[in-house]
Amino acid sequence: MTDDDTHGGDGTHPTDAGTDAGDARTDGVPGGEGPPAFRADGGSAAGADEVALDPWGSSTVGDYRKLFEEFGIGAFDDVLPEVPAPHYLMRRGVIFGHRDYGRVARAMREDETGPDEPADAAVLSGFMPTGDPHIGHKMVFDEIIWHQERGADAFGLIADLEAHAARGLSWDEIDEHTRSYLLSLLALGFDPGDGELYRQSTNREVQDLAFELGTRANFSELSAIYDFDGETEVSYMQSVVTQMADILYPQLEKPRPTVIPVGPDQDPHMRLARDLAARMRFFKVTEGYASFEVDDAERELLARAYEALEAAHDEASPVRCADAAGWLREHEPASDAREGVVESLDAAGKEPLRPRVRFLDRNATDEAFEALIGAIDGEKRVFEGHIDTFDMDRDAAEALAREVEVEHGGYGFQPPSSVYHRFMTGLTGGKMSSSVPASHISLLDDPETGYDKVKSATTGGRETAEKQRELGGEADECPVYELYAYLLAGDDDEFATEVYEECVGGERLCGDCKEQAARLMEAFLEEHQEKREEAEELLDELDFELESPRTD
Ligand code: TRP
Ligand code: SF4
């Protein structure tokens, strides 16, 4: 998870130069019931339309909306109503985006598994042990813990292989930071009795899965996604397949919805993981109307044609593909989808048109294929590489395909889901960066240092107190307000709203506001560090290899 710009590595990664424009500006929306939410557009900073998602480069997001359009990330607001008692980061729009989170929310709501069984939902995230954990990581720790408290099985992993490969850290350094990340995660409430902590380098199952996943991806694909070229070290690719295995690891116990909370820079990994999960499947379930495969747009056209024609036909004289082609030419405006589907319909000619759910054989063993045939109720037709069924809906077919796959030794992976949080603005303005101590607050900073850093932070205040009273402060542009919203106000929405309203209303002046924030930060760090100390014992009792057997 990165919320900093320290992914520059050693310069061997082709996009290290990255772009630097556009920091993660925030844009609060006052009013409404909850605290002001951060809007999806990243404010009006210069270069605000800049979007670069690079897991090892410098990721910048000027305009969060672009992520929705360009990469197909969903707006978190759309799933928010499905989440019971959402986390404050969700309520405040800090968690702004997701892929397929609805299935995780549903699984958590409906989970009826007992305490000793694997839960129906899981959460996993990973951390490169490259430095001290800071308040950006705290957000992710909290997200993991929140899901754990709501019944999900929780996984926290230390990406030590990646840190070694992509950042060249020695194993001694890695061990030191590993311990520190784990202490903070435990101090914040991660329950190791109801979850799993591991490091990539010693998790044999992850390594084995990584290797298997590597059989489904080739170099061209990785270079297209990550800008790899002939000079890229092989260990970068190993890091990629390892992360793919991390993401799917919670599903080795059983296939289940899994959410990966990350920064948007990790989205390329999510897209690949979702693809690989599908490529490992024994069967692919599709819906169609005839022997040929169609895409979503084409299917919609077929549905309309079928509905229009069906009433006038019966079993003795079914709707034929050629009839549907004629209907579409007459009733639907020309489009690529129409041309595509009409061509297929013409080629199928007299074949009857009939809705069906299809199982395509992707990687099934012969036994699994036979078993699936036997398990399908109702009318079915078996072909060389697929089975068409006529009395099954799609969800039932998906469930059956997965069941048969798992019974025959397959993984049955569900596509992993993700949620994305905003990058925090640095205390000195610009980006929060691990390499600029004044820009961030480390969870290990002395409470007084934390206090001082907040006191010296840039604000969204006006030049003079008079102007501030007259115009109000710019809370939306203020790193200190962000501290309140992301951390200091905790679950207290009223307090977050109060700070915002008082600021923009001109009643709050930056000096006092920072003093209050600084005190809260000091208290937070004090308490957190006490809890870290208490966690030492717990950590040493865990079954976790704190010292790597590797040497440099
Ligand atoms: N690549 C992540 C980072 O840059 C770390 C990571 C490794 C990770 N495996 C993961 C994150 C699995 C989420 C899920 O920090
Ligand atoms: Fe920021 Fe507080 Fe000043 Fe408003 S009053 S601009 S929130 S420091």
UniProtKB/TrEMBL annotation:
Pfam families: tRNA-synt_1b (PF00579). One of its GO terms (cellular component) is cytoplasm. Residues 1-10, 463-472 have a biased composition (Basic and acidic residues). The keyword Acetylation does not apply. Its EC number is 6.1.1.2. It is found in: Cytoplasm. SUPFAM superfamilies: Nucleotidylyl transferase (SSF52374). One of its GO terms (biological process) is tryptophanyl-tRNA aminoacylation. It comes from Haloglomus irregulare. Residues 12-21 have a biased composition (Low complexity). A motif ('HIGH' region) lies at residues 129-137. A motif ('KMSKS' region) lies at residues 431-435. Keywords: Aminoacyl-tRNA synthetase, ATP-binding, Cytoplasm, Ligase, Nucleotide-binding, Protein biosynthesis. Belongs to the class-I aminoacyl-tRNA synthetase family. InterPro entries: aa-tRNA-synth_Ic (IPR002305), Rossmann-like_a/b/a_fold (IPR014729), Trp-tRNA-ligase (IPR002306), Tryptophan-tRNA-ligase_arc (IPR020653). The keyword Ubl conjugation does not apply. This is Tryptophan--tRNA ligase. It comes from the Archaea.
